Structures are given as structure tokens and as C-alpha cells.
């Protein structure tokens, strides 16, 4: 999920004006019958799209590198822990110096388009496609061509993770309070994410989890673990249980 | 994310009836509020979003993954799509003396202005009949600036009684275009005016 | 040039201390130190990755190498060490720099710069923002404006109008600067110019050309010409007219002369120009495109490429007399040496659309004879058959 600053500002500006009715903000879908036996597969973790920053009063996203670096570190650790507990091997994607860069990027762009479509047209009410509405299974893919990418050789699945956090600044929180008093809904803070698993032999999206209201402060180890647990909720295979007890 | 925001923005600005409609197999008349009709043999979804006065959009998985656009009788002097920025990005218009080869050219100029498409190529062009009218079938490739996904397109168009009828299918070059192009071709074969 | 209008503009001339154009020694490759700076830097790294792998990047030929050489000549080797330059096929007049030292140059700029000095002036200007570490501060300023708007929205019920944007202009506009910063960058840019060997007036001339193009574009669209160029023309830029004026005045304090290197520029751009022109002609901007063509023609004469592009322009607009004009330009292009058979096709299409079937037939047949397997051969054959 590439978060486009201007787009985000627009969305939040809109949220500013509409009354915020927040219904069912978390959803998982997977290919029918898909299951993952622990210890049997190699998963490549594509470069996670992680954005952590502040949300200014005006809804503008201010990236914060310290937080993002912390988040990247903690999320990385939490991800490996979660996966080792399933016994599956998770390798981070290595950018090779070869010519595949643009093609891998194309697959990442395509994945974004697919995930956005799942979220927009199947997961959440508002703009569903009738043919997807009836929950007639989960058939989404980036196509079998992905099997030919050399830089993904040796892996069975690719895991795409995206999280985006904007911690409401003081100004934003003030605005929220004033807004509430005046009957105008102002959201403060953005915590969204999705995680998707692509079968590298077939290119099928076997699993996607989208959450528009995520928990866990990703800047801390505990928060990152909670976030990873939420991102990987419903991950095919054993449920993710981490050592620290958390709601 | 782009898609969600674009949709949300359009939902605010356009006061159209919300909700995308199911297109069941069988004859369907009045497409794009025009004389255009088609007979799909499978299910499609019609998007509630209106990109222009004479435009109707169908999709299977979502318009960024597979999209059929019907342009139903765009009159002389009108652009294909509703202009986003009339002052700084005015769109080219349909003209009375357009040759069949000017039809894909019109689409290209429209896309380069409206969607900041910086790379677009019209590939094959051959004569074809659109519901019995002499027109053109063409293929193309392009990349939009907002999602950078490389897409392919195929279309059929004709000038009929001074109005442009055009039906195009667009999908990402990776996997999606080939997956559904036959469905589009079958659909296009059933077009009637 | 309507300098007399300057009096009406509420724009204060920036002060340059004692006409001093010497460059300070360069503090090399700085590491972002504060929390805010690191935030913007990190976003830029992802941006550079996108840029590097983008399908729009112009990788063929030595264009990026040439651009780097121009930058180094403009700002000096100390400053250009470690800078990465990416050329992208985007038809707008733009070059921008990310705080991590990655610069992107749009093909639209290359089409509009009339010589190497003008290109250098623009690249130098962007580098100046980088040297002055403006991106961070620009960001902070923008936040201030949006904060105010958010409060207005809540308290006053005014609705925000969303602005759709694209990836590339976003990468540039994250680092949008306010007017004071633009002025600072202009003045530092002049210091670069002073030691570069390029004529110092180039910076001013770039803006003059841009304003003239905007006028031409407006005229072509039957819109009002902006004779005053007050704020609004370039949102965060100083009023362009005033800018051209003060740049000219400051440059006047520097020794005249210098080599604008128009020929070198022409040679470097030559392999790409027909591609860039083709994209420009398809933008539905008749006036602006005519202006660009005439500028290039001043430098290189009316070459076959330019005349062909002019034919395309007129044929696309296709007003009553345009098609006749287009046919004439195609013919002139052929005489000037444009050899590709596509010219015959486009000439034929122009003639056909204008009702000159017999002449069209000759031209279209010539195209088909030369390109029997062309991707549009069948369509052209069908046109002939009617």
C-alpha cells in the first residue's frame, strides 16, 4: 500500500468533513481450502512498506525517520519471531544488482493494485462489486509470471506487508475535541495495514488481511509484536501466539 | 490506496446513486445512456462512477485490474471524458471529419492530458465493423502516472451519424490483460446500435 | 517586456549584500541531524528507489551522463560529487531534488531550455535548494498553512477541495518551497552561474521564456493572457515577472559574456528530440507547442524533425485551414531531409481529411509500399479503398 502524502491529506480532509461512521474495519480473505503446514515452506518477505510519523493538525503526514527505523527494526524482529514459531523460514528480499529491479517493481505495483481492489471492491461495504459481494470465494492473483523471477527463486511464497501510522499531534487531538463538541467528526491518527501472501508458483493471492484500525505502537517492541499479530491474523497455518500476553 | 481515495473523492463530488450494479448474462440495452447494446454471456459489474456524460464502465475484478469503457455516441464538439481541469488541461474534442485512424489518436491525446499518461503507444490498427458501421479495431499500451502499472488496451470504434461510439478494454500487462481479453472480444462481438 | 508593471506588484526586491557573488566553501554530503530532517530524508530514499526502477526513466544513450556534466560545470565538482541524476519522460518543465541528493530532470525541461546555460541555470537553482537545506523548512511551512485550514474547516464549516496528484509531481511537490526560499535559491544560483562560465543572464531568460510560453498557450486556448504574472501563476514561486526582472538586474552586476553552448546542447538532445516533441504535440496545447517549436528553430533552424512535429500539431488541431497548413509542413519536412515513410502516411491522412483524395492516395500508397507490414497497414489500406 503506497501511501501518497497528498492523497492521504485528501482522505483525511474528507474525513474532516464527513461524520465518521466506522464500521467493520478489519477483514481477512483467503483462497478456499488454502492451508499452510508449518516448517514446509520458504517465504520471502518483500521490502515492507512502513511509514510512521505524525499527523499534523491539518491532517498532513509528517514522516519521522527515527520512528520508522525503530518500527522497521521491531516489526522485522516480530515478523521473524512470528514465523519461526510456525517453523517456516522467512527471508528478506534481496535487491540484486541485475536487471530484474523494474520487473519486481512492476509486480509490487500490481500487488498494490490487487490489494486495493480487494479492499475497495470486496472487503468493506460502500463500493462492493456485486460479483464479489456474495463472498463467492477469494480469487485474486498477480499471475503465474512471478514464478520466473530469478530474485525470488527458492522461495515458495512472497509476503507483502504494509503498515502506515500517523500519530495524532497535539494540534490534531485538540481539533478532534473541538470537533466533537461541535458535532463534526474528526479522526485523529491513522493506523492501517495489510499483509498479503502470494504463492510464487501460481501467482495467486492466497491470503490477504486488511485492517484500517490497527493497534500496537509500532515504535516499541511490544507494540510491534501486537501489530504483527494483527497483521498476520488469520494467517494460514497455526494461529500466531507470541510470548508476551496482549489483548 | 489511490483507488480508495479516488473513489471517496468522486463519491463526494458526484451525487450519483451509490452502489455498483450486477450485469447478468443476456441482452442489455441503453448502455452509456445511448443506443448501444450488448449481450454478455457471463456476469459483469457496472460501476456507479460516472467518468463522463456518455461513459459507462464495466469490470470483473475492479477497474484497475480489468475495465471495459463504453463511450455511447459522443457528439461533435464534446470530449470523451468529463474534464478534470478545463482551464489548464482542456481535452480534445470529437470532430465531424475524423478518419478511423483519428479515433485511437483522440483516445491517446485524451489520456496524455487527463491522466498524465507519459508513455502510450497505439500498436495494431485495422478496419472493423462496429454494429455494421465501418470503424477501426486497435490495440495499445500505456502507463498512468498515478499507479505506474503498465497496461494494455484493445478497442473498437466508429463514427456513426456524426457521433463517436467507442468500446475499449484495459488491464495490466502482467497477467490481467490476457486473462480476460477473450471475454471482452466476445462481448464486443455482440455490440448493437 | 513590461517591466513598468513591476511598480504595481507588491514584491520587495531581495537584498544582496554588497553585490558579492563569491561561493562559500561547500560542506560536503551532510547527514541529516535533527529528527525532522531524518524523516524527510527517509521518504526520499524510497522515492529514489521508485525513480531508479521507473519505466519512465530514460536509460538509453548518455543523457544522464550529459546532465551530470552540466550540473558539475554549473556548481563545481565539490558540490556535484555524490549527486545522482535521473532523467524521466515527463513533458513538464521541471527538475527537482530530494534531500538525499537524488535529482530528477523532466524531458519537458529539456525541450524548453534553449541552450546549455539555461538548463544549467535550472539545475543550479534546484541544487541551491538542496545546499540551503530547504526541503525540511518548506515542509514545516506547508504544515502551518494546512493547520490553519483545518481549524477553519471545523469552526467555519468550509469544505476542503481535494487535489488529485500524480507520483512524479508529488515527489517534486513534497519539497515545495515558499517564495522566500525560491528567492534565496535564485540568488545562490546566480553565484553558481558567476563561476560556471555560462552567461549570467540565462537564469532570467529561462523565466522570460516560460512566461511567453504560458501566454502563447493561453492565446491558443482563447484564454486571457496573464500580462501581470502576479502570484497564482506559479503558486509558491515569486511572481515570475518580478523574478525575471530581479534576476536580470543581479546578473547585470556580473561580467557579461560567457558561452551559452547552444550547439553542444543541441547535439546532446538531438537523439531524443523527436521523441520529446511527439509527446509534446499530443498534449492538446497548440499555442505552447508552437512557441516551443519556434524556440528550438531559432537554435537549430527548421529541421526536418521540427517541421514534421509542426505538421503533427496542425493536423491534430484540424481547424479548417490547419489541415492544409499541416500538409505544407510535411512537404517542407521532406525537403529538409525527414526521410521516414511515416511522413507520407501523416501527409496522406491530412490530405484525405481535407478532402484531397487523389493526392492522399499517392502519399498513402507510398507509405504502404515502404511499410507493408506496418501495424496500421490494414487500417490505411481500408482508408484507400473508400
Task: Based on the model shown, name its key terms.
heterotrimer, B: 193 residues, alpha+beta, Protein Transport Mog1p, Chain A, eight-stranded antiparallel sheet, two-stranded antiparallel sheet, globular, C: 386 residues, mainly alpha, Serine Threonine Protein Phosphatase 5, Tetratricopeptide repeat, 2 domains, three-stranded mixed sheet, disordered N terminus
Brief overview:
The complex is a heterotrimer of chains A (247), B (193) and C (386). Chain A has one domain.
Domain count of chain B: the total is 1
| Order of strands, widest sheet of chain B | 1-4-5-6-10-9-8-7
How many β-strand stretches of chain B? 10
Number of helical elements of chain B: 3
- The CATH topology of chain B turns out to be Protein Transport Mog1p, Chain A
CATH architecture of chain B: 3-Layer(aba) Sandwich
Distance between the termini of chain B: 38 Å
Are there runs of chain B of 5+ residues with pLDDT below 50, and where?
Answer: 4-17
Structure description:
The complex is a heterotrimer of chains A (247), B (193) and C (386). Helix content of chain A is 34%, strand content 21%. Chain A is an alpha/beta fold and 247 residues long. Chain A has one domain (5-17, 27-231). The longest helix of chain A has 23 residues, at 101-123. Chain A is globular and about 55 Å long. Chain B has 193 residues and is an alpha+beta fold. Chain B has 3 helices and 10 strands, in the order αββββββαββββα. In chain B, the strands form 2 sheets. In chain B, strands 1-4-5-6-10-9-8-7 form an 8-stranded antiparallel beta sheet, sandwiched between helices. The radius of gyration of chain B is 16 Å and the shape is globular. The N and C termini of chain B lie far apart (38 Å). Chain C is mainly alpha-helical. Chain C has helices at 35-53, 63-75, 77-80, 107-112, 116-131, 134-156, 167-173, 179-196, 202-220, 240-251, 262-269, 273-281, 286-300, 304-317, 322-335, 342-353, 357-370, 377-385, and strands at 84-88, 95-97, 102-106. In chain C, a hairpin with a 4-residue loop joins strand 2 (95-97) and strand 3. Mean pLDDT of chain C is 79; it is low at 1-18, 137-175 and 228-238. The B-C interface holds B 5-6, 9, 12, 84, 87, 89-92, 95, 97-102, 105, 108-109, 112-113, 116, 118-119, 122-127, 134, 136, 138, 143, 145-146, 148, 150 and C 50, 54-56, 89-91, 162, 164, 166-169, 221, 223, 279, 282-284, 316, 318, 349, 352-353, 375-376, 378-383, 386.
Amino acid at each position: 500500500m503506497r501511501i501518497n502524502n497528498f492523497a492521504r491529506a485528501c482522505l483525511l480532509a474528507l474525513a474532516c468533513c464527513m461524520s465518521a461512521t466506522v464500521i467493520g474495519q478489519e477483514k481477512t480473505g483467503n483462497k478456499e481450502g488454502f492451508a499452510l503446514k508449518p516448517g514446509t515452506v520458504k517465504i520471502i518477505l518483500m521490502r515492507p512498506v512502513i511509514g510512521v510519523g505524525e499527523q499534523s493538525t491539518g491532517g498532513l503526514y509528517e514522516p519521522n525517520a527515527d520512528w520508522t527505523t525503530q518500527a522497521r527494526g521491531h516489526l522485522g524482529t516480530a515478523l521473524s519471531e512470528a514465523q519461526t514459531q510456525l517453523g517456516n523460514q522467512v527471508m528478506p528480499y534481496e535487491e540484486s544488482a541485475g536487471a530484474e529491479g523494474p520487473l519486481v517493481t512492476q509486480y509490487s505495483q500490481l500487488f498494490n493494485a490487487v490489494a486495493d481492489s480487494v479492499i475497495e471492491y470486496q472487503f468493506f461495504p460502500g463500493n462492493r462489486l456485486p460479483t464479489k459481494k456474495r463472498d463467492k470465494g477469494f480469487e485474486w492473483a498477480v499471475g503465474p509470471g512471478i514464478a520466473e523471477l530469478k530474485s525470488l527463486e527458492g522461495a515458495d511464497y512472497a509476503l507483502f506487508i504494509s503498515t502506515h501510522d500517523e500519530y495524532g499531534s497535539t494540534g490534531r487531538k485538540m481539533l478532534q475535541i473541538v470537533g466533537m463538541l461541535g458535532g463534526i467528526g474528526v479522526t485523529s491518527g491513522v493506523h492501517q495495514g495489510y499483509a498479503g501472501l502470494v504463492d510464487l508458483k501460481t501467482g495467486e493471492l492466497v491470503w490477504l488481511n486488511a485492517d484500517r484500525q490497527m493497534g500496537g505502537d509500532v515504535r516499541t517492541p511490544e507494540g510491534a509484536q501486537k501489530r504483527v499479530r494483527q497483521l498476520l491474523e488469520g494467517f494460514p497455518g497455526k494461529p500466531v501466539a507470541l510470548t508476551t500476553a496482549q489483548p | 490506496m489511490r483507488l480508495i481515495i479516488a473513489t471517496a473523492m468522486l463519491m463526494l463530488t458526484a451525487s450519483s446513486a451509490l452502489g455498483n450494479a450486477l450485469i447478468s448474462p443476456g441482452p442489455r440495452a441503453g448502455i452509456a445512456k445511448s443506443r448501444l447494446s450488448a449481450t454478455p454471456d457471463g456476469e459483469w459489474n457496472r460501476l456507479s462512477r460516472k467518468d463522463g456524460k456518455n461513459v459507462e464502465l464495466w469490470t470483473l475484478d475492479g477497474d484497475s485490474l480489468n475495465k471495459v469503457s463504453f463511450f455511447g455516441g459522443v457528439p461533435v464538439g464534446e470530449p470523451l471524458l468529463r474534464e478534470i481541469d478545463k482551464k489548464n488541461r482542456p481535452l480534445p474534442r470529437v470532430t465531424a471529419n475524423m478518419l478511423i485512424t483519428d479515433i485511437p489518436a483522440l483516445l491517446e491525446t485524451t489520456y496524455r492530458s487527463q491522466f498524465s499518461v507519459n508513455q502510450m503507444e497505439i500498436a495494431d490498427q485495422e478496419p472493423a465493423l462496429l454494429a455494421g458501421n465501418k470503424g477501426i479495431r486497435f490495440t495499445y499500451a500505456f502507463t498512468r502516472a498515478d499507479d505506474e502499472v503498465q497496461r494494455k488496451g484493445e478497442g473498437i470504434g466508429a463514427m456513426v451519424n456524426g457521433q463517436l461510439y467507442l468500446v475499449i478494454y484495459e488491464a495490466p500487462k502482467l497477467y490481467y490483460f490476457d486473462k480476460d481479453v477473450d471475454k471482452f472480444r466476445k462481448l464486443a462481438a455482440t455490440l448493437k446500435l | 517586456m513590461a517591466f513598468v508593471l513591476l511598480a504595481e506588484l507588491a514584491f520587495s526586491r531581495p537584498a544582496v549584500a554588497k553585490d558579492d557573488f563569491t561561493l562559500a566553501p561547500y560542506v560536503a554530503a551532510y547527514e541529516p541531524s535533527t529528527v525532522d530532517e531524518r524523516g524527510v530524508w527517509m521518504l526520499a530514499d524510497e522515492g529514489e528507489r521508485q525513480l531508479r526502477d521507473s519505466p519512465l526513466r530514460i536509460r538509453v544513450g548518455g543523457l544522464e551522463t550529459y546532465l551530470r556534466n552540466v550540473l558539475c560545470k554549473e556548481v563545481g565538482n565539490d558540490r556535484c560529487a555524490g549527486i545522482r541524476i535521473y532523467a524521466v519522460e515527463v513533458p513538464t518543465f521541471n527538475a527537482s531534488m530530494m534531500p538525499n541528493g537524488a535529482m530528477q530532470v523532466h524531458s519537458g525541461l529539456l525541450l524548453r531550455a534553449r541552450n546549455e546555460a539555461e538548463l544549467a541555470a535550472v539545475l543550479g537553482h534546484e541544487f541551491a535548494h538542496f545546499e540551503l537545506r530547504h526541503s525540511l523548512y518548506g515542509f514545516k511551512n506547508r504544515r502551518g498553512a494546512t493547520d490553519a485550514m483545518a481549524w477553519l474547516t471545523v469552526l467555519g464549516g468550509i469544505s476542503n477541495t481535494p487535489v488529485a496528484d500524480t507520483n512524479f509531481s508529488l515527489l517534486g511537490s513534497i519539497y515545495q518551497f515558499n517564495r522566500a526560499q525560491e528567492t534565496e535559491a535564485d540568488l545562490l544560483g546566480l553565484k553558481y552561474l558567476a563561476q560556471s562560465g555560462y552567461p549570467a543572464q540565462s537564469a532570467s531568460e529561462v523565466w522570460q521564456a516560460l512566461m511567453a510560453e504560458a501566454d502563447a498557450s493561453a492565446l491558443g486556448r482563447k484564454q486571457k493572457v496573464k500580462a501581470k504574472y502576479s502570484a497564482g501563476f506559479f503558486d509558491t514561486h515569486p511572481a515570475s515577472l518580478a523574478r525575471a526582472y530581479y534576476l536580470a538586474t543581479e546578473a547585470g552586476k556580473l561580467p557579461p559574456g560567457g558561452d551559452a553552448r547552444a550547439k553542444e546542447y543541441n547535439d546532446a538532445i538531438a537523439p531524443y528530440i523527436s521523441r520529446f516533441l511527439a509527446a509534446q504535440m499530443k498534449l492538446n496545447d497548440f499555442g505552447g507547442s508552437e512557441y516551443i517549436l519556434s524556440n528550438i528553430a531559432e537554435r537549430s533552424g527548421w529541421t526536418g524533425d521540427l517541421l514534421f512535429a509542426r505538421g503533427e500539431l496542425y493536423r491534430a488541431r484540424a481547424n479548417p485551414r490547419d489541415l492544409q497548413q499541416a500538409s505544407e509542413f510535411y512537404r517542407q519536412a521532406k525537403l529538409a531531409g525527414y526521410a521516414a515513410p511515416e511522413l507520407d502516411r501523416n501527409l496522406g491522412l491530412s490530405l484525405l481529411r481535407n478532402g484531397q483524395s487523389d493526392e492522399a492516395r499517392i502519399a498513402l500508397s507510398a507509405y504502404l509500399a515502404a511499410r507493408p507490414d506496418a501495424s496500421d497497414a490494414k487500417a490505411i489500406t481500408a482508408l484507400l479503398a473508400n
